[in-house]
Structure to design on (220 residues):
């Protein structure tokens, strides 16, 4: 990503701090945009009690920055969850999972009262699906799920060499026409062997902060 792209991500990441309540436990996602959020959070780490992290990579960054990381099972209520996206619509439907952390991301999004998505303007699209849709699958079901996905007009490609934090595989589905994201998410969720579909539409972001050349744009 160019310095200009990084600056737009940083704008969105910085703006997400406004949603962090003092003394709260916050959810923290994964990816290059979130890494900028983590950097900013570390600068004011006394503001938060702890974090719930969506990946081993983010956990390491948080701990290195002096932020306590808790297990979601030990937290009754989660206010805000900040995470990035691979694609986002103005309706705040998302494709996520480019960093292979989609399962924990979806769990934390489900647990959070407010999901704040941060992205640079290149991520905003009219229709989802140009970015290949990541789907986490149980390894023994990889070929079965791939055959089933072909029936939806997609071209599943096994992300070889990647094992998720949960010990599973990722299929990236190219060429899907996603006209109705919630319906497709619901349908693909039903396939045996699918752990998580990288569509975040049934539980969309509540707030989408977009970093642009002219500052931030907030969709909510
Ligand atoms: C991680 O699995 C993803 O869902 C990320 O949130 C997504 O890939 C965005 O990453 P970047 O901020 O690096 O573009």
């Amino acid at each position: 990503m160019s310095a200009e792209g990084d600056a737009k991500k940083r704008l969105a990441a910085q703006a997400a701090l406004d949603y962090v309540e003092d003394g709260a436990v916050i959810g923290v996602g994964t990816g290059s945009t979130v890494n900028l959020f983590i950097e900013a959070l570390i600068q004011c780490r006394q503001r938060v009690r702890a974090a719930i992290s969506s990946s081993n990579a983010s956990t390491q960054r948080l701990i290195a920055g002096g932020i306590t990381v808790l297990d979601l099972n030990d937290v009754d209520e989660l206010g805000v969850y900040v995470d990035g996206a691979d694609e986002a619509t103005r309706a705040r439907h998302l494709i996520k999972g480019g960093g292979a952390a989609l399962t924990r991301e979806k769990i934390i999004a489900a647990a959070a009262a407010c999901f704040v998505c941060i992205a640079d303007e290149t991520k905003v699209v009219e229709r989802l699906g140009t970015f290949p849709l990541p789907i986490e699958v149980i390894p023994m079901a990889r070929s079965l799920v791939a055959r089933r996905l072909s029936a939806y007009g997609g071209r599943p490609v096994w992300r070889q060499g990647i094992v998720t934090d949960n010990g599973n595989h990722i299929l990236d589905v190219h060429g899907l026409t996603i006209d109705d994201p919630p319906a497709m998410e619901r349908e693909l969720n039903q396939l045996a062997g699918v752990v998580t579909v990288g569509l975040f539409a049934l539980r969309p972001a509540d707030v989408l902060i977009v970093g642009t050349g002219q500052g931030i744009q907030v969709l909510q």
Remarks:
- The chain has a mean pLDDT of 96.
- The first strand starts at residue 24 and ends at 28.
